[in-house]
Amino acid sequence: MLDNTRWKPSVTVAAVVAHDGRYLLVEEMTAEGLKLNNPAGHLDPGESLLQAVAREVLEETARTFTAEALVGTYLARFRHVRTGEDITYLRFAICGTVGEQIAGRRFDAPVQRTLWMTPDELRACPERHRSPMLLKCIEHHLAGQRAPLSLLHADASLYDSAS
């Protein structure tokens, strides 16, 4: 019997935001306890990568995000110890800037708070990272790795509600 199941990685976006030598992070509740991450999340149907990263930053930090460049793409596999779930993530890390926190706007439920940390502070606490991609994205940003946003294309068919 043939297995016609197509393997599909989980597509995510992550914002890399630096200001005065510190990076914007979220502290979120996970099955493994409180963990640090870039403002990040899953790509939703009918949205571009740039729309997704702006939405995720707003939901997780209550700040608007202005994308500037693609830092990199990352592929990583995770096996959750507790659930046994095996997921491969395809992450698009996009750097940019944020506005001031919007008064009265709440964070998405798993996010407990936002904080700004230096690269050295992050390097000192790998056990608190939700993903190894967190530090990898920041290290690449620190190294000046940037690609133009024009590399990210979204065909008009993505927004066609008749499909």
TrEMBL record:
UniProt cofactor(s): Mg(2+)
UniProt cross-references to Gene3D superfamilies, sorted A to Z: Nucleoside Triphosphate Pyrophosphohydrolase
The protein's Enzyme Commission number: 3.6.1.-
Entry's Gene Ontology molecular function annotations: hydrolase activity
InterPro entries in alphabetical order: NUDIX_hydrolase-like_dom_sf, NUDIX_hydrolase_dom, Nudix_hydrolase_domain, NudJ
Coiled-coil stretches noted in the UniProt entry, renumbered to this chain: none
Domain (Nudix hydrolase) ranges: 6-139
Keywords: Hydrolase, Magnesium
Record bears the keyword Cell wall biogenesis/degradation: no
Keyword Magnesium assigned: yes
Top-level EC class as recorded in UniProt: hydrolase
Quaternary structure note: Monomer.
Entry's family note: Belongs to the Nudix hydrolase family. NudJ subfamily.
Record protein name field: Phosphatase NudJ
Organism: Ideonella lacteola
Gene: nudJ
